[in-house]
Amino acid sequence: EYPPDQNFPGGDTQALLSTTQEMELRRRDYQVERPLLNQKQLEELGRWSSVTGTHQWRTWLQCSHARARALLLQYLPVLAWLPRYPVRDWLLGDLLSGLSVAIMQLPQGLAYALLAGLPPVFGLYSSFYPVFIYFLFGTSRHISVGTFAVMSVMVGSVTESLAPDEDFLQDLNSTVNETARDAARVQLASALSVLVGLFQVGLGLVHFGFVVTYLSEPLVRGYTTAASVQVFISQLKYVFGLQLSSRSGPLSIIYTLLEVCWKLPQSVVGTMVTALVAGVVLVVMKLLNDKLQRHLPLPIPRELLTLIGATGISYGVGLKHRFGVDVVGDIPAGLIPPVAPNSQLFAKLVGNAFAIAVVGFAIAISLGKIFALRHGYRVDSNQELVALGLSNLVGGVFQCFPVSCSMSRSLVQESTGGNTQVAGAVSSLFILIIIVKLGELFQDLPKAVLAAAIIVNLKGMLMQFTDICSLWKANRMDLLIWLVTFVATILLNLDLGLAAAVAFSLLLVVFRTQLPHYSILGQVPDTDIYRDVAEYSEAREVPGVKVFRSSATVYFANAELYSDTLKQKCGVDVDRLISRKKKLLKKKELKLKRLLKEEKLQRQAGPLEPGTSVSINANTSIRDIESNNMEGSKAKVRLEELEDTAASGQEDAKAPDGSTLKALGLPQPDFHSLVLDLGALSFVDTVCLKSLKNIFRDFREIEVEVYMAACHTPVVTQLEAGHFFDASITKQHLFASVHDAVVFALQHPRSGPVSPVSVS
Question: Which UniProt keywords are given for this protein, alphabetically ordered (predicted)?
């Protein structure tokens, strides 16, 4: 409030400033008081009780009308959103979006079939069946499911390795029997698609969608960049019109590139010119699209126009016969009947199928989550696995190859007004019309034009090379993952490269937790906040108390390093000090035994003279003395004296100063208490439990009491389950915060009963 004599806003400015400053000071002048709490008192105050685990399987086994309806809507999402579809608001946008996507699907389907090593028509099939299935089961409203370059090149590596050209050479003229080769490859691709679908559906039903979290963003981007390089190199044979050997396995892409360079003199000039002209046209039309996108209701269908123009020129000029340009060839009209996959091929395809299933799902879910976040809805990762799996499973029965979603088509679907998967259904219907009626019109389409379209579309993925500069500045560990993934994928091929990249990224995580940052904490002045004294110049260590913290959890891989670093940071050679202490105690024990032996020899030689004194250590054992057989009245008197001396020695040994470092002449640590900040602990294993117990034992040997602080409740529960707490280590050694432990340690420099203390 303002002073009574001030009329704001026309009052005195100085008075207003002084009032504001006073309010600010009041706001800053706060004080928090609470009792000092250890873990036991905290549990009593908060009335802690263990959380009873819910048995999810009981919910799954419940049978009711509501449960059945919920399951139906969960696994068939179209029944949930289609009845509420706003026709007036969204239908026009979905129709235009579906048409735009279909215009892109046609050339991409034909081109990506070449990447998969299959006849182009099977790219059209893969653009129809899976898209319609995803319309029924998918939860993303904007991704465009269908053929994708990375998936196609992964399929191509499988088909070319298991059905190489060399297996279909004709004996007479050593030419390849393309009909038999294509039939074998189609059988392989369809069986692969079914197996990929089974993997994805199975993983989705067991709620294994989180598996994609092991594919970090740098890993995925490095992998897709390497895949784009492989796609680029695989299309060079169509650009130059070369006949290359089929290769697969490690270093296959390197050998293919070397063979392309070796056979460059055999290039077909007409094919090169066709590819160059098509590429220039596609780039120019893309630049026009970017420049005129604000003024155009729909983007220019550059790929479709290029394909139509190239087909017309090829048919009119006769590129195949006059210039030797390779064309698509026969495209059968109509759909083909479903065919059961050859299950005997599953054993050969299982490894590649799992890799393709994971990569396809990773690409789809990452794009789906981007669009969901942008438009404010939720994507169910497990249902996405089921939807993609069913798309590939049904597609494989109809001789499609595995599919995922395309980034370029998804962006077009969103930017042209697509709101739901109705756009996908519309695009699949357009593809159906092309398959039934218009597909045969593209028989004279040059393959070099499709290769040019693929290479131009790789621009987005090839631009990911700029990640190297950005990751160098942001996070070099992520850059290392990117580079290892890229190199491994290039050298080892797509399947082994992915496995090596995942293994390396997981090992890097283990390595980073194995070598965390350790620090000694000091108190920031006038606060209860503790920070690393090496980083904060004003942070000061509390006299007599060492506070130690690790930035990672303690487990079997770093438990030994944790203990060693703790002893090193404390500035005390704990192991050497304990060793010296044990040696001195053992030396005193041996000296005592020697004195007792001398006393025994003297007694055997003759009775003790009156007044003879025997020097004995305070730690003499009564049992050792009673074992000696002494005779004579004077010896009995001396025995009683020795018993009294030994008894007093035992009392001294039980006393705090009986065998202290000071009494033994050893250096004492400059701190009496050690606080372990365990706030970073997320779990404990048996090695961690043993390490903590050893820390308590070792530091107590050098007369330093150990406390723990800031443990999370699940960690405390695991400590109890591991029988960590006993008579010597109780919950009274565990405090709610570091400050509580420090205050208690200062008030109790030696172990004693815990009592609540007011902390300001």
Answer: Coiled coil, Membrane, Transmembrane, Transmembrane helix
Q: For residue 618, what are its two tokens?
A: 């305070």
Question: Position 311: which residue type?
Answer: T
Considering the entire predicted model, what is its pTM? 0.75
**Quick check: 311 and 444 in contact, CB under 8 A?**
yes
Measured CA to CA, the distance from residue 474 to residue 457 in angstroms comes to: 28
Could you give the CA distance from residue 461 to residue 407 in angstroms, rounded to a whole number?
10
The rounded distance, in Å, linking the Cα atoms of 431 and 107 is 11
What pLDDT, on the 0 to 100 scale, is given for residue 249? Answer: 77
Q: What would the pLDDT profile of 423-445 be if each residue is shown by its tens digit? A: 999 999 999 998 988 878 888 88
Report how far Cα 200 is from the mean position of its chain's Cα atoms. Answer: 20
The count of other CB atoms within 10 Å of the CB of residue 393 is 21
* Gap between the Cα atoms of 530 and 710, Å rounded: 12
Q: Where are the alpha helices (DSSP H) in 119-177?
A: 121-126, 129-137, 149-162
Nearest to 93 by CA among 420, 340, 320: 420
Q: What tokens does 520 get?
A: 């000694």
Say if residue 9 is preceded by a cis peptide, omega within 30 of 0. Answer: yes
Cα torsion 363, 364, 365, 367 to 10°: value is 80
Q: Is the Cβ–Cβ distance between 453 and 304 less than 8 Å?
A: no
Residues contacting 512, CB < 8 A, separation 6+: 477, 552
Q: At residue 413, what are phi and psi to the nearest 5 degrees? A: -60, -40
Question: CA geometry: angle at 695 spanning 513 and 542, to 5°?
Answer: 90
Q: What are phi and psi of 43, to 5 degrees?
A: -65, -40
